[in-house]
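PROTEIN DESIGN WORKSHEET
SECTION A - STRUCTURE
LENGTH: 347
TOKENS:
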């Protein structure tokens, strides 16, 4: 008998459970970012339409993602001008205040690179791309400072009354700065997008990222904000984001928690993180064991008051998912039966 490394045994057991115990429709066996098959189950995830899936992690790059992921067609429709994202955020856009000062607090984000570029006084011809620019409020600030401003936004058009529009990230080095604010959590393949950003940025240019923070989940406890399988479909620990940036040709130069706010009766928590990175053309070191941060996060989240079923707490997530799927189908069937007995209802 050939002795297999522990990782190979774990992979074999997971594939067996995929086929024998429970497999969610459309579930994938490889990481959507790096393509690795070294996946592990972290939690059971209730999806819409009565489906039951998983929160999965990747040992190779540390990505956490909802499994199954929404299809590309579903995502394109969801973020279209008539999709649910644009409709649900219409009222938020109408009431959101806008900072217009050239030297406001927004510029402090870029303090770690102030010696290289002053965002409030750019060199002539400096250009910035905001991927997922929304209404263009951030681009307004940059344009007021003298930047050439470009945006990509499929859901709304308002930003392009003032800024130049792109339908895709250019394949040639065009920009000095790229912004991706609360974007990566909506993307199924973040590594591919980070590489596209690298191709569109001049060597020595910079990238600003902001994402919901998975590794502080035990503190802020807003699980559905970080990952919900619908809008937020991928999640990031700091180790994961460092690894993905390094693989895409970005050197992290500023990395810190973001948006410390009051939640849960005044308790202060960190729910987002930001990263500033520089475009380089040399190999970069990656974080060690990025998948371990995701495991520790879920353990910490459930350590306070674990309300999961015993079988799930014991680690038998595939069996727990199968039970949850059966219960949800039964509940849906019972609801349909009750509705069919209501006078005037149709079968």
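SECTION B - SEQUENCE
RESIDUE ASSIGNMENT:
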């Amino acid at each position: 008998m050939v002795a297999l490394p522990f990782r190979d045994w774990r992979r074999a057991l997971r594939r067996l459970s995929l086929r024998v115990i429970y497999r969610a429709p459309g579930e994938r066996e490889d990481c959507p970012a790096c393509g690795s098959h070294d996946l592990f189950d972290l939690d059971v995830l209730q999806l819409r339409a009565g489906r039951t899936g998983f929160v999965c992690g990747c040992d190779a790059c540390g990505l956490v993602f909802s499994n199954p992921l929404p299809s590309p067609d579903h995502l394109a429709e969801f973020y279209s001008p008539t999709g649910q994202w644009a409709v649900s955020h219409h009222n938020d856009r109408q009431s959101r205040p806008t900072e217009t000062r050239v030297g406001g607090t927004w510029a402090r984000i870029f303090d770690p690179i102030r010696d290289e570029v002053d965002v409030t006084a750019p060199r002539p011809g400096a250009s910035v791309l905001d991927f997922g620019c929304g209404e263009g409020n951030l681009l307004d600030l940059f344009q007021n400072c003298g930047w050439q401003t470009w945006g990509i936004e499929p859901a709304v058009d308002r930003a392009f009354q003032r800024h130049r529009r792109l339908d895709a990230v250019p394949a040639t080095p065009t920009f000095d700065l790229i912004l991706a604010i609360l974007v990566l959590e909506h993307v199924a393949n973040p590594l591919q997008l980070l590489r596209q950003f690298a191709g569109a940025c001049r060597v020595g240019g910079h990238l600003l990222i902001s994402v919901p923070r998975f590794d502080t989940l035990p503190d802020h406890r807003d699980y559905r904000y970080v990952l919900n399988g619908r809008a937020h479909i991928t999640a990031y620990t700091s180790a994961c984001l460092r690894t993905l940036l390094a693989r895409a040709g970005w050197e992290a130069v500023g990395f810190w928690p973001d948006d410390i706010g009051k939640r849960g009766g005044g308790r202060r928590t960190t729910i987002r993180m930001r990263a500033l990175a520089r475009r380089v053309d040399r190999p970069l070191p990656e974080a060690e064991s990025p998948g371990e941060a995701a495991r520790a996060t879920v353990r910490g989240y459930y350590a306070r008051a674990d309300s999961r079923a015993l079988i799930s707490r014991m680690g038998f997530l595939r069996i727990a998912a199968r039970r949850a799927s059966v219960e949800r189908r039964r509940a849906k069937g019972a609801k349909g039966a009750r509705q069919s007995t209501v006078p005037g209802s149709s079968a």
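SECTION C - NOTES
Residues 6-334 form a domain with the Rossmann fold fold (CATH 3.40.50.150).
The first strand starts at residue 39 and ends at 46.
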